[in-house]
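Sequence of Sulfate exporter family transporter (Hymenobacter monticola).
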Amino acid sequence: MRTVTTAPARPNRPTNVASEATATAAGPAGFWRGLHTPRRAFGREYRLSQVVFALVLGFCLTPWASPPLALALGLALAQTVGNPFSAQTKRLTPKLLQYSVIGLGFGMNAHAALQAGREGILFTVASLLGTLVLGYAVGKWLGLGRNLVHLISCGTAICGGSAIAAVGPVLRARDEEMSVALGTVFVLNALALFAFPPIGHALALTQNQFGLWCAIAIHDTSSVVGAAAAYGTQALQVATTVKLARALWIIPVSLGTALAFKQPGVKVKIPYFILGFIAAMLLNAFVPAIRPLAPFMTHLAKIGLTVTLFFIGAGLSTAAVRAVGVRPFVLGVVLWVVISVGSLYVIMHGA
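Predicted 3D structure, token representation.
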């Protein structure tokens, strides 16, 4: 009789199974999932992504954080952890930028600002009209809708997101068109903030030249001020003054848009914060009691600008970049390159 020997059954190994589960949870997917898993502490619910966001925001409030670095941190956060407070930052960003611009007015020299505004007026008119005409031609060649073309052209010609936000309701533009236009100028703003200061140093631009170039060639006020602040104090004064004078063109362009696109009965948004900037500058110049507070107000304004750029970067997710599409981005790049190179040539040759 043949005896069959059977191997003993393997005992269960809960320890190994548990360790395998732990290893799986500790993997890349588990790590990112853990960042968004709700937890409780001190009777409150929180997520690790919110803690990371708060820590980076706290760093942006310190003297070690510059506007370009804050934007880079926001972009990195958007592509990795994400922005857990996207609704709040989207609501706060416009107001924080406006208050920061007003605060910068306390650090401006009224006489120098007036001179810079005079020098920049011809550049402003020529570049604004040229950008709108070129945008129409390139947009038609690319086969884009007229609303989207006009939004991107206005954003490039005047002051980025602020101009788009003002002209959009006049056009009765769809949300998709607004999102694509805003995404286009925000991506190019981020590139300009990093690219312009090294280019300025490489070309040995003066403070006045660089400030004027920033005001004309960079879309949003936030990036204009950020790039100019990285270059120098005088560049900051020139750039801020010329850019805000340029932003006043929102009003006539919005009215012209209503007529050209036959949109009666629309309301034009007036950028009142520019009046606040002018008032702060005049108070600093002609009210001696205000001057001791000016450095403190300017310091707060620069911190506000840094946080603003962090919020902008944190809102520029991969999905937002992809939503722009190729053709609208091509239009934005063509307009940006032409106005950047053209204005730089004129500025460097002393026109």
